[in-house]
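Backbone-to-sequence.
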């Protein structure tokens, strides 16, 4: 029995050592760029020994975020007052910011686990469901009906997730605790905003009866779509050129003719599917675009955006440019449409862009529970809503 206890203790110590080493590597190099062999070396064990505890890198990330989540729940329980009231969203955000690596690790898992194939998918779905249920219970007694409480909780969660992504790209610009504190103060002062009586209407389907037949798809179009579909499932680093060729139904030589390197293929996907819209006359039109794409395209953008928060990622500069454009153009439009001051327009734009990003992520996890059009549309200033925002991305 003593040997068994010792063996168990040694195993647990080794698991914790693996998680500690992974934590440091994921922060310094990024999750996708870190290999299992890197983790084994940093843990001081062999690669086969590592595989006895974790079969994949995804399992390590899921275990690491689960460990941080447990620590987080313990902190919330310890911080509850005598009446059982938990720390506020702003207080929780300050704690998250102080917990080294929490935001980048959570964001990495948040993006990549949108794929149903990912071992952390159910963990993140459950996390979202539990958070929504508890939030509705807390808000239902504040004078609003259950639908309004559910929408308010979903919007808060979505904006919070989006703000965390923005903070990794613009750490000196985004102040998450202040944003959340302002939102909480507005809720206390104005009460729970009522949910729309009807879901945000979807646009009419395009007339396909007299439409021209689709042109034959080029090798370039097939390669770009295949790469994006694989990014949505596995991310950039774990997607090989051979896998893209097979997904696209091309030979490796034909793919190399389209894009000679893995990086060149990524640049094509960014340019043709995820490029910033520099001449978009209506920044809110950018939000509508989010809702008018197939699921695989939306998922590819989210996965790339979450993994490219690391400056060394080849998509980092492009993603930062796209987000900066969205923030600036939305702030300019708010200032013009509502006569807001520069600071108020800037912080309001951060909230709206974050809400759009986080709402899209929430929809990728729970498409049957998230009415994405209403989630985003009801948060837009009334003067700028301009009709239907759109429908959720199609599942194609």
């Amino acid at each position: 029995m003593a040997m068994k206890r010792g063996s168990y203790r040694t195993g647990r110590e080794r698991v914790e050592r693996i998680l500690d080493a992974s934590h440091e590597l994921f922060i310094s190099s990024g999750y996708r760029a870190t290999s299992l062999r890197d983790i084994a070396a940093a843990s001081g064990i062999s690669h086969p020994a590592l595989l006895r505890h974790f079969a994949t890198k995804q399992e390590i990330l899921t275990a690491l975020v689960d460990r941080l989540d447990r620590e987080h729940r313990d902190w919330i329980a310890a911080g509850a007052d005598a009446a059982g009231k938990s720390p506020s969203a702003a207080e929780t955000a300050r704690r998250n910011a102080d917990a080294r690596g929490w935001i980048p690790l959570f964001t990495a898992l948040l993006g990549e686990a949108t794929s149903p194939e990912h071992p952390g998918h159910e963990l993140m779905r459950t996390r979202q469901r539990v958070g929504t249920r508890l939030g509705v219970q807390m808000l239902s007694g504040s004078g609003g009906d259950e639908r309004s409480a559910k929408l308010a909780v979903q919007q808060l969660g979505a904006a919070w997730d989006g703000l965390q992504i923005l903070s990794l790209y613009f750490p000196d610009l985004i102040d998450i605790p202040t944003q959340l504190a302002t939102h909480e103060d507005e809720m206390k002062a104005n009460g729970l905003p009522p949910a729309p009586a009807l879901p945000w209407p979807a646009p009419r389907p395009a007339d396909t009866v007299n439409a021209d037949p689709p042109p034959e798809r080029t090798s370039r179009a097939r390669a770009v779509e295949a790469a994006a579909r694989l990014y949505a499932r596995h991310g950039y680093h774990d997607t090989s050129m051979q896998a893209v060729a097979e997904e696209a139904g091309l030979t490796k030589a034909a793919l190399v003719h389209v894009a000679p390197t893995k990086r060149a293929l990524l640049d094509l996907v960014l340019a043709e599917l995820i490029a910033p819209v520099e001449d978009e006359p209506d920044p809110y039109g950018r939000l509508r675009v989010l809702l008018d794409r197939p699921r695989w395209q939306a998922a590819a953008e989210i996965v790339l955006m979450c993994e490219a928060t690391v400056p060394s990622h080849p998509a980092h500069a492009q993603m930062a440019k796209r987000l900066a454009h969205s923030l600036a153009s939305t702030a300019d439009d708010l200032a013009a449409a509502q006569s807001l001051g520069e600071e108020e327009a800037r912080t309001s734009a951060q909230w709206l862009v974050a809400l759009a990003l986080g709402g899209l992520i929430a929809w990728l996890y729970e498409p049957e529970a998230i009415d994405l059009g209403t989630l985003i549309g009801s948060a837009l200033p009334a003067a700028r809503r301009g009709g239907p925002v759109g429908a959720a991305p199609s599942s194609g």
